[in-house]
Amino acid sequence: MYTKLEKKLKKKYLNSQPYPHLIIDNFITDDFFLKSLIQKIPVFEPSVSKLNDYKNRQTVLDVNLYSEEILKVLNYFYGEEFLSFCDELCDKKLIRGLENNLHQGNILKGGGIHQTGPEGYMQVHCDPNCHHEKFWLRPINAILYLTPEWEKKDGGQFEMWDATANKIIKKITPRFNRLLLFSNQINSFHSISKINSSKIRTSLATFFYTKEVVEYKNAFFPNTSQKVHEAIDILNKIDINKRKKEIKKYIKIFKKKFDNFDETEFYKNCNLF
């Protein structure tokens, strides 16, 4: 049902520029399953970022909203066969099982179904280098593109930038049934170019973790202030039942400890409950 993943592809992955990545076309080989999969993509509901880092974009995180077909693909991505291949690419032991990669039992934090509509885009950025709560290392990402008949002229290209985010080195067209694997580092800068058609650019994104813990000082979370980082780090060391019960007390402490502490940003980024 899926393209055979061969270990010899590691050399191609490591030698790709501007950072390690691999493109596999026609990833799902079962046409009947593929047709059924795309018929059950969630309805697109556009949104605009207050930070202007994206436009006309939707991320569906709740796996309870996914069809049986989407869940089947996700279980394959988080299964032994696929992750053994990814282990080889990044020289890490990745955490197996979809259930072990969910937040609050049903949320794929940041991953899942991503959709971008007409004139939508995403500005250049880097992804977090570790888990938002457990600080597990996140060494590799995978994106499966799911919009039929997508062409270069439609825009929405995955743009890979140099290590200083000053120059685009490579553009990847999100062709239907194309899988992109790429190394997730603090300088793996990427963006999505503006959509030039009426099509909805749809992809299934998966982020993979190891149980190797990133030290707080080396953790990277885009768009999150240092004050919020420090508050999250403090709460991470407190028993979850205690932090749930006494969260208002801790908020008061943080407001005294940090000048201009942003409570809204804290709740948006902590995900500790």
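[next item in queue]
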Amino acid sequence: MPRFLLLVALAALTPSGPRPITSHDLYQFKWVADPRISPDGSLAAYTLVQVAEKGDKYETSLWVVAMDGKSAPRRLTAGTRDGAPRWSPDGRMIAFVRTATDTGAAQIYLLSLTGGEPRKLTDLAKGAGAAIWSPDGRTIAFTSSQLPSDTAPPDKDKSDVHVVTRAAYRDNDRGWDDPIRHDHIWTVDVDLGADGPAKARAVTSGNYDEDDIQWSRDGSQILFLSDRVTSRTMTIRTTTRSPWRRRAARWRR
């Protein structure tokens, strides 16, 4: 779900006056999420969210609108699971995340503002998070929970039994929380001349998650945040200070 929702509900008028809202009216709602202003400040890209009556699900698409408000918004993508638009530093392209199918993994796509179809940039079994452009526009950083075993041949002898050793072992909407799978930082080169996906590289590893990625101004380093605790639910406070350690770290190219 988007972090910020803007809903406007108008009562439907009937000859006898306004009627109470019904569940069917939910399908008329549309709202804006994740707005991003272009580098030159002239345009804003955003995700339009609406409820699809068929399938009882949310559909998302990318739109762009002029910041002066003098023209109507126009749709950028034809997909129904597109989101997280991110402008390139020169403002000529938008990287976004698309989920091709209901059960598929989200991947990063590139869309030129001059026209043409979006190009798929990543192809990871566990998908990719929102794109973070490097200052020179040649590299994109993102997070993924991909493991080397995800691309290995299936192990027929591997047991499907889950051994729970932590108090927090599942999440709403996600189900089973795999303790060996973490969100790590990956990078992928932006080759404008390529036709297919590029090879992505993991630049962090270990037993902790990383997020809030930021490039340094010269593009030589990536700064990120990480919780360096094994389990929040099992940490015991022994002093008056908080036991949670939210650390800022960096990675050099």
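[queue empty]
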